[in-house]
Automatic annotation (TrEMBL):
Catalytic activities: O-phospho-L-threonyl-[protein] + H2O = L-threonyl-[protein] + phosphate; O-phospho-L-seryl-[protein] + H2O = L-seryl-[protein] + phosphate
Organism from which the protein derives: Lupinus angustifolius (Narrow-leaved blue lupine)
EC number: 3.1.3.16
Protein's recorded name: protein-serine/threonine phosphatase
Cofactor: Mg(2+); Mn(2+)
SUPFAM superfamilies for the chain: PP2C-like
Amino acid sequence: MASGEGRRQRHHHDLVPLAVLLKREMKSERMGMGKPTLRYGHAAQSKKGEDYFLVKTDCQRVPGNSSSSFSIFAIFDGHNGNAAAIFTREHLLNHVLGALPRGLGRDEWLQALPRALVAGFVKTDKEFQSRGETSGTTATFVIVDRWTVTVASVGDSRCILDTQGGAVTTLTVDHRFEENIEERERVTSSGGAVGRLSIVGGVEIGPLRCWPGGLCLSRSIGDMDVGEFIVPIPYVKQVKLSNAGGRLIIASDGIWDALSSETAAKSCHGLPAELAAMQVVKEALRTRGLKDDTTCIVVDIIPPDNELPSAPAPKKQNKLRVLLSKMRFGGSTNKVSKNLSAVNIVEELFEEGSAMLAERLGNYDNSGKSTSGLFVCAVCQVDLAPSEGISVHAGSIFSTSSMPWQGPFLCLDCRDKKDAMEGKRPSGVKVS
């Protein structure tokens, strides 16, 4: 993965349109690629009682249509209490789904997911902060739709992908001030102060934190006492797996403070998902002890003809496979390469981590109109009269639109929150 947060989507001339990729996927499925089987397991050890998780495998894009099913796996690591983690577990999924336009086909639905995830995260944060509680939570939210995996995250819970023989890929970015220079610069430029805890004699100790509040994370849901430049706008990454499948390991920082991504993946190779989750937790506790809530979900995305993920094949078998492929295709190296390119290759469809709401919501071709003919707020989904909506691009140097009157639109409250997240007004001060 490229380092830094920034703007992650590749230049247009390097991209193949998502619709084209998904049409190829559907064609491959008709030719025998099929729908993968999901197996998952969960394990946890509690220290503070602030870790929560969500597993939902019966979601449907089209109600009553089992062929439109997708699954959700998520971890919420609370701090300063568990209220934000509980609230996010209960409401985030509905807010994400509520931000998706109705009647989309699968390819358009997947293409709309990154924007809907941003809107859902921000709406969840806005609603929780309105309750006046001061706790916060990380959120690592994973959507698995056949071979396509979409991950949205704030904080330092992490999701990794192990292709069982390929490289271990991190699908999230840690939003810790200690490691993330770009996030430190963003927060300080928005009005926050970043530094270590100062004790008697001026000695500084511990990790970098944001002041006021002393939070180590630059992005979270909740944390209204820290400042709204601690934003809920998620890093989003969407990938398409090959028909070899893969394993997802989603875990709170109780795991990642003890284990590297590679060590976590290696520790559970060859084990079914339920035992794998238990093994990862066991390895973390063996390495570091129980110093924090420690939660892990393992998800295996298994090809239709396999019951369990297999351990990495020995190199001799790989060479033999190449030889057999050459024999099968009459010695054509081009055809052999094409055949092998489908094995353990992860194709990146989307990646973006900007904290600017205008940039993340983009442009709406339908101008953000609801089925009633009214405009809708892109974040909270309330109906707006044309005179009430404020374009997310109005007055923004980050606008992707040359016409600031274009959608998407925000209600006054959401525009107020957008300004606060960008440091355009003091946190907590309402704009009249």
